[in-house]
Amino acid sequence: MESRNGFRWRKLALKPIETRRSGKTEEENKNGQTTAEEEPLSPSSRLYHEPNFNVYVIAIMGCKTRIYPDVVIANLGHTLLKHPRFSSLQVVDEKNTGEMKWVRTEVDLQRHVIVPELDPNMDSPDKFVEDYIYNLSKTTIDKSQPLWDLHLLNLKTSESEAVGVFRIHHSLGDGTSLMSLLLACTRQMNDPLALPTIPIRKKQEKKNDHRGFWRIMFMFWSVLQVFRNTVVDVFMFFATALFLKDTENPLKGPPGSEFNPRRIVYRTVSLDDIKLVKNAMNTTINDVAFGIIQAGLSRYINRIYGGNKKDGAAIKMNNLPKNIRFRSTLLVNIRPSPGIQALADMMEKDAEAKWGNWIGYVLLPVNIAIRDDPLDYVRDAKAIIDRKKRSLEAISTFFIADLALKLFGIKVAGALSHKVVSRTTMCFSNLAGPVEEIGFYGHPMAFLAPSSYGQPYALMINFQSYINKMSIVLSVDEGTIPNPHQLCDDIVESLQLIKDAALTMGLA
Predict the structure, then answer these.
(1) DSSP string across 236-250
(2) Quick check: pTM over 0.70?
(3) How far is the C-alpha of 479 from the C-alpha of 137, rounded, in Å?
(4) β-pair type (34-35, 27-28)
(5) Spatial distance between the Cα atoms of 44 and 444, rounded to a whole number of angstroms
(6) Which of 9, 89, 162, 208 is 20 to 30 A from 127, alpha carbon to alpha carbon?
(7) Could you tell me if 259 and 418 are in contact, meaning their C-beta atoms sit under 8 angstroms apart?
(8) Rounded distance, CA 59 to CA 165, Å?
(9) Nearest partner of 271 among 106, 465, 15, 401, judged by Cα
(10) Beta-carbon count within 10 A of 427 CB
(11) Beta-ladder partners of 430
(12) What residues contact residue 31 under an 8 Å CB cut-off, 6+ apart?
């Protein structure tokens, strides 16, 4: 068992190793891996080495068959390791005032692919996997190797025959790009040569009935809206960085939450149920997902303020305090994510693909309230998201953080980012996944559940679609949220209530 080989307990921030290697030469090792010095780390990548931003991305992959480590290791060398970030060390450049850079190295896959010996007859395999990931979040990856690893757990759970757990340091890329890269390593089960198909949001055809003066006035009003919204959002960003905090609530973590281990729990629901609500209310899947979150969080917090009573009357009674300020941070990569095809070409044909963390911030208000009509949660969500679409908040906050970095250095930029994020309550994301069954190096996948740990808030919620399923994944600090399964159940129950309301009103 190699579970200790690549780990270090998460006591300190990830510190870069120093190197005295110099020169621009490239060498080929015996496995065909290229070793060479490369470009410096981007500012956003360096930010993830700060003590309070030492974030790791987790991707849990349920497989329908036993996972064969030899097959995985053989394929990793020809796919994932072709990406420079996954075969490079992050080192200190002694000649450039301690700046960090990528240095290609030979990768020993035996250190990165970890296969613990497990008892197939254990009493609660689902709890074991959950605890395994919880203990994993207490550790960091040894800085003398590329900052990723893969844990293969050949253990039958309620949803799969085996589980793979990818762990990748956030400095290697943003969450969307990393998930795209992992999917580029998969193929469709019904066509082993075909890459996964990811749904693309179709642009709505705009019916242009405006003529002359009214068309100009409409365009002027749209630009004015974007300008006004952006000014307001940037003001709120500065206010949050300086003094504006969310209301203290049962889901808001205390200072230092980023150093605590994370309990990651997930549920799988029907994507068709979400689409039913989407079509009935003429919204997007993202609107419905955010509405479900607002309903589930309101239900959970209301129960706590009501003394954790579980009877129906107590749940329906409004126990919430008035005027709760509750916000979610969205970290948006303003550089377009490379597509799966581009990443596959990069790994197979040594083609180039854009990569990197260009992170902007969006502060998303979350309405915590008890509604008589469950569909109001989706209506509120749509209004909030539509308002954010008419703003340049993400681009503006990226340039503000980048300016702070250039003027004051990484420490000040890191402190600014930490203050903004830690003064909100949670983080939310929704990723579209493959529409057909895929296989990870020939192992058919049952589900995909991404998450992370090391972030400075006590709650993160990810939605991930796959075929006709949607995984709802929670990453929580148990010191703040001691019953994450109840919170997960409340979110799932909220979807059912919203779906039933849509059917009852004859909208679907």
Answers:
(1) HHHHHHHT--PPP-T
(2) yes
(3) 14
(4) antiparallel
(5) 35
(6) 9
(7) no
(8) 6
(9) 465
(10) 20
(11) 463
(12) 77, 106, 107
Two tokens at 135? 């203990």
Alpha carbons 390 and 378: distance in angstroms, whole number: 19
**Residues in CB range of 403: below 8 A, 6 or more apart:** none
Instruction: Identify the bridge partners of residue 275 per DSSP, sorted by sequence position.
Output: none
d(CA 56, CA 148): 9
For residue 414, which of 258, 299, 272 has the smallest C-alpha distance? 258
From 49, 83, 112, 170, the catalytic residue? 170
DSSP bridge partners of 27 = 35
Burial of 486 (0-12, 13-18, 19+ CB in 10 A): middle
Starting at the edge strand found earlier in the chain, the sheet holding 148-153 runs 113-114, 148-153, 162-169, 56-63, 443-453, 438-440, 186-188
**What 8-state DSSP symbol labels residue 355?**
-
Cβ-count burial 466-485 (b if 16+ within 10 Å, e if not): bbebbbbbbbbbeebbeebe
What's the rounded Cα separation, in Å, for the pair 260 and 90? 24
Residue type present at position 388: K
Contacts of 95 (CB under 8 A, 6+ apart): 22
d(CA 133, CA 112): 16
* Helices (H) then strands (E): counts for the chain: 14, 21
CA-based radius of gyration for the chain: 23
Name the amino acid, one letter, at 270.
Answer: S
User: pLDDT tens digits, the chain, 508 residues: what are they?
Assistant: 434 344 444 444 434 333 333 334 444 444 444 444 467 887 778 888 888 889 999 999 999 999 999 999 999 988 888 888 899 998 887 776 667 888 999 999 999 999 999 998 899 999 999 999 999 999 999 888 999 999 999 999 999 999 999 999 999 987 777 888 888 889 999 998 888 888 876 655 555 555 677 778 888 888 999 999 999 999 999 999 999 999 999 999 999 999 999 999 999 999 999 999 999 999 999 999 999 999 999 999 999 998 766 655 556 688 899 889 999 998 776 766 556 666 666 666 555 666 666 778 899 999 999 999 999 999 999 999 999 999 999 999 988 988 888 888 888 888 888 999 999 999 999 888 899 999 999 999 999 999 999 999 999 999 999 999 999 999 999 999 999 999 999 999 999 999 999 998 877 6
Local structure of 270: helix, strand or coil? strand
The first and second tokens of residue 228, run together, are 């006004």
> Per this entry, what is the length of the chain?
508
Is 170 among the residues known to form the active site? yes
Q: At what angle do helices 271-281 and 285-305 cross, to 10 degrees?
A: 100
- Strands 426-431 and 327-333 come out as parallel
- Residue 336 has what DSSP assignment? P
- CA–CA separation, 198 vs 181, rounded Å? 13
Asked if 264 contacts 451 with a C-beta cutoff of 8 angstroms, the reply is yes
In whole angstroms, give the CA distance from residue 147 to residue 129.
22
